[in-house]
Every structure is written in structure tokens, then in C-alpha cells.
Write a structure and sequence with these properties.
The protein has 484 residues and is of the alpha/beta class. Helix content is 38%, strand content 22%. The protein has two domains: 6-257 and 460-483, Aldehyde Dehydrogenase, Chain A, domain 1, CATH 3.40.605.10; 262-449, Aldehyde Dehydrogenase, Chain A, domain 2 (3-Layer(aba) Sandwich), CATH 3.40.309. Helix 3 packs antiparallel against helix 5 (107-126), helix 4 (92-103) packs across helix 5 (107-126) and helix 4 runs antiparallel to helix 7 (190-200). The chain starts with 5 loop residues before the first helix and ends with a strand. Bound molecules: nicotinamide-adenine-dinucleotide. Keywords: Oxidoreductase.
Length: 484
């Protein structure tokens, strides 16, 4: 395994060139776009801007490859996926540094674990199967339920976890016999282009292609007649465009979208011991995660002590370039998001809400740095409570009554995740049962696994990723009825 030092990382190693992967080949594009390093605000590299024709070529190659790929056995596809995981493992260090460079997240605590989890995910999913089910078998007939692959899957991914969220889609799609074209976020295309490149040395041509470019490639994919399914992760707003556009060809859809997750710290919680988990649940990845704690509800009986302990812990963190091993909180990923998060800060200040940590952006600092900011008890109807901040700001909100806080937590168009914290586990689970979300963690945070469905309710999602349920969504149910 090659070890890449931070110093090397800053040099030409990651400047490129980067290529599209189409039909098993590395392909240049006639145009390119700048990819920024969010820690410096400087251009990191140029990424190829795929043309509409190149996207069509990738889809055509995927359609052609589907014929042979879908005819392989599960065991044969497992073999390919394990070989892909091995090839990625050989480039693990390089991918992690590149992820930090383009995304901003701290190398040791965020980027390396993201790459490791993604590789492990492929290995584990490779071993899963969707067997044929015999629904009826009697003297007169047999009924079998098969799960057949859909065809070409289009993956559209965001910039917060570009490696993990893309490979979460690749592994189950390919395992179940589909082929795939990935369009990464224009903010973070580089790691995806690299793992697309690595795939070409291991997988048959056309099975996995990567086409980077502008947002306009998204609608081309969602309307494409030869794409059978769109697996999308991104904002709810964009997800609505995907739904509209996909209607024309009745595509299958899995949509993983925005959230405004509540954490409820119950009156009996051992709250002191869970402050680190709550902090990282909110501020990890600089608050840029769909299932991040975006509203932290604390019972009035321990409000003041909680806020001061939370602020003390938060104050120990170091903001900076993710390549610096001492840094625990990186920059916000891009200028657009930086500006959005600043709007939250402006709104908090304009409305006289109480900032107990952070709140001031250093105007002279290069890069997109927002300090960890804690807002003490903003009103329930404030922007920071009602909307998805997707940045390192956490509101700590006081409640008096458990029924009331459940109602407040549920009073949202989103329904992605949430967490409940309390000593009496049964009581905490009872609260979890009442939250209208796809996932609720009780006394733990962000545990995930290949057999655990991950998805949102309400406007946070359609379908699920992960779990047998998620894998089924890459297939069509097909019933075969046989007269004896
Ligand atoms: P985004 O919606 O702006 O972009 C997501 C992807 O959609 C990008 O690849 C983009 O190029 C593409 N796109 C843009 N316009 C499109 C269109 N009209 N048609 C098709 N594709 C189009 O989201 P983002 O800013 O990259 O990511 C942040 C959002 O993603 C947050 O809301 C976050 O909560 C959400 N998210 C959800 C999950 C989840 O699993 N539920 C995970 C991560 C992020």
C-alpha cells in the first residue's frame, strides 16, 4: 500500500489529468471545469466536462454490457466485486487524501474511514444474494418469485460523502445484475473519476462508467429512455425535479434527500457521558450530513449545565485544513454552501438569538471556514430550527414536556433520521417509535450496516438504500406460475 504524505498531496500527484470512464476506456472531454480545494479556496484540479454525447455513449455501453453482466451468476458477479474492492484497497490511501483535498473533511477521522467503509461495503454486499422464492408449491402448480435486474441504473451523487454514497449504489446495483453510469457532484468529481478509472481495470467494459460534468447532465439522465432507474442522493428540491423528469419514462427511483433530524435528550439521560456523541452527530463532516443532528432538544432540568458542557467540548475542536492531523473540523465544502450557512448566521444575529460559541467568520481567512457555532434556545419557528443548515451550526432547544417535544420533532416536512437519549431504554424506544422518520438511533449515533435499511420518510426520501429492502429496489419482482 502506498503511503501519501500531506506534503505530497499538495503537489502534482493530484492535479490530474482526470478522465471520464466510458465503455471500459478512459476518455478525455473537450471541455473541463475547475475543482476547488475548500481548505484553500484555490483550484485543485480540472475535471473533464462530459458532453451530452459522451453521456449517451456511456448509457449505450451500459445497455450493451447489461446483456452479458445480467446473465452472469451471483457467484461470478461476487468475484468481480471482490476484485474491485481489492483494486480500490490498493489505492486506499491515495483516494482518502484526494477525498480530503476535494471535499475538505479531516483525513484521519473522516476521509480514511469513508473510503474504508465504502470498500468494506462492496465486499460485504458481494456476498449477499436475493434467492428465488417459492410462493406456492402444491399438487397442481408451483409459483416462483424471481427478482430480475432492471437494466442501466443512473447514479446521481452529492458532495458531502462522495465516495461512500456512490459506492453504496454501485455494490447492490452491480451485484443484482444491473450496469451503472455515475454522475458525481460537480463540486467533488475527482474521487469518483478515480474509482471509475480503477473499475475499468477490473470490471467488464460498460458495467460501470463515470461521466462528470455540470448539473445539466442530471436532467439528461433522469429523462434518458435507456436508463431504467435513477438512484439519487441530494437535496429534496433537486429530488422533486428528478421525480418530475423521470415520470416520462416511468423510471424506478430511489431518492435519498434532505433532513432536519432531531435529537431528543430525555429527562433521565446520562447526558454528560453522551456529549461527544451528540457533538459529532451534529458537527461531524462540518455538519454536512443528511442524518446529522440539526435540532438538539434538551430538557429544561439540565439545560444550562448541558449547554455549558457542550460548549466546553465544542471549544476544544480545531478548525482547519483536513490534511493537518490536529484538525478535527474541516471547511464547508463549497462556496455556495458557505454562503448558505452564512445566511443562517445572519438570520440568527438579525433575530437576536443567543450565540454561545462561534458565529464569527474570519473574513481574511482563505477557504470556506465557518467556526463551530452553538445557538442557545432559538425559537421553534426560527430559520435555524425549521430549515436544514447543512453546516457546523447546532441549535440547542429547550423543552418541558416529552409529548410536546415529539410533536415538535415531527412537525417537519422532512423525516430522515433522529435519535433519542435516555437511561430507561424502553421509554426511549417508545419515543423512537413515535418519531416519523426512516431511522431512529437510541443511545447511539449513526450506526449503519449493509443489512440495515437506510432511507427517509415524508420529503426525505423514496425507497431505501442498504438492507435487503434496498437491494430489492435494484430489481423487478417477476412471478413465474407453473402448472404441473
Ligand atoms: P443537490 O441536490 O444540489 O445535488 C445532488 C446531485 O444532483 C448532484 O450530482 C447534482 O449535480 C445533481 N443535480 C442537480 N440538478 C439536477 C437535476 N435537475 N436533475 C438531476 N440531477 C441534478 O444536493 P447537494 O447539495 O449535492 O447535497 C446536499 C443535499 O443532499 C442535502 O440536502 C442533504 O441532506 C442531501 N443528502 C441526503 C442524503 C441521504 O441519504 N438522504 C445523503 C447525503 C446528502
Amino acid at each position: 500500500m502506498t503511503t501519501v504524505s500531506a506534503k505530497q498531496a499538495a503537489t502534482s500527484l493530484f492535479e490530474g489529468p482526470y478522465y471520464l470512464s466510458i465503455a471500459g476506456k478512459l476518455v478525455d472531454a473537450t471541455a473541463s471545469f475547475d475543482v476547488m480545494n475548500p481548505a484553500t479556496g484555490q483550484v485543485l484540479a480540472k475535471a473533464p466536462s462530459g458532453s451530452p454525447q459522451q453521456l449517451d455513449d456511456a448509457v449505450a455501453a451500459a445497455k450493451s454490457a447489461f446483456k452479458t453482466w445480467s446473465a452472469l451468476s451471483y457467484d461470478e458477479r461476487e468475484h468481480y466485486l471482490v476484485a474491485y474492492a481489492d483494486a480500490l484497497q490498493a489505492h486506499r490511501d491515495e483516494l482518502a487524501v484526494l477525498l480530503t483535498l476535494e471535499q475538505g473533511k479531516p483525513l484521519k477521522t473522516m476521509a480514511e474511514p469513508e473510503v474504508d467503509q465504502a470498500i468494506s461495503w462492496i465486499r460485504q454486499i458481494a456476498a449477499r444474494r436475493i434467492p428465488v422464492e417459492v410462493l406456492e408449491d402444491n399438487d397442481s402448480h408451483t409459483v416462483e418469485l424471481h427478482h430480475t435486474p432492471l437494466g442501466v441504473v443512473g447514479a446521481i451523487t452529492p458532495w458531502n460523502f462522495p465516495v461512500l454514497l456512490a459506492l453504496w449504489k454501485v455494490a447492490p446495483a452491480l451485484l443484482t445484475g444491473n450496469t451503472m453510469v455515475i454522475k458525481p457532484s460537480p463540486f467533488t468529481p475527482l474521487t469518483t473519476l478515480r474509482f471509475g478509472q480503477i473499475a475499468q481495470s477490473v470490471l467488464p467494459a460498460g458495467v460501470l462508467s463515470v461521466v462528470s460534468g455540470g448539473n445539466e447532465l442530471g436532467p439528461q439522465m433522469t429523462a434518458h429512455p435507456d436508463i431504467a432507474k435513477i438512484s439519487f442522493t441530494g437535496s429534496t428540491e433537486t429530488g422533486k425535479h428528478v421525480i418530475r423528469s423521470a415520470a416520462g419514462t416511468v423510471k424506478r427511483l430511489t431518492l435519498e434527500m434532505g433532513g432536519n433530524d432531531a435529537a431528543i435528550v430525555l429527562p433521565d439521560a446520562d447526558w454528560k457521558s453522551v456529549i461527544p456523541q451528540l457533538f459529532w452527530g451534529a458537527i461531524g463532516n462540518s455538519g454536512q450530513w443528511c442524518v446529522g443532528i440539526k435540532r438538539l432538544y434538551v430538557h429544561r432540568s439540565h439545560h444550562e449545565a448541558f449547554v455549558s458542557a457542550f460548549v466546553e467540548y465544542a471549544g476544544q475542536q480545531k478548525l482547519g485544513d483536513g490534511l493537518d492531523p490536529e484538525v478535527t473540523v474541516g471547511p464547508v465544502q463549497n462556496k455556495m454552501q458557505f454562503d448558505k450557512v452564512r445566511e443562517f448566521l445572519d438570520d440568527i444575529k438579525a433575530n437576536g438569538q443567543r450565540i454561545v460559541l462561534g458565529g464569527e467568520v474570519d473574513e481574511n481567512r482563505a477557504g470556506y471556514f465557518i467556526p463551530v457555532t452553538v445557538v442557545d434556545n432559538p425559537p421553534e419557528d426560527s430559520k435555524i430550527v425549521q430549515e436544514e443548515q447543512f453546516g457546523p451550526i447546532v441549535p440547542i432547544i429547550v423543552y418541558d414536556d416529552v409529548d410536546d417535544v415529539i410533536e415538535r420533532a415531527n412537525d417537519s416536512p422532512y423525516g430522515l433520521g433522529g435519535s433519542v437519549w435516555g437511561r430507561d431504554t424502553r421509554a426511549a424506544v417508545a419515543v423512537a417509535n413515535r418519531l416519523e422518520t426512516g431511522m431512529v438511533w437510541v443511545n447511539e449515533m449513526h450506526t449503519q450496516g449493509v443489512d440495515i435499511p437506510f432511507g427517509g420518510h415524508k420529503q426525505s426520501g423514496v425507497g431505501t438504500e442498504g438492507g435487503h429492502e434496498g437491494r430489492l429496489l435494484f430489481t423487478n419482482p417477476k412471478t413465474i406460475l407453473i402448472k404441473k
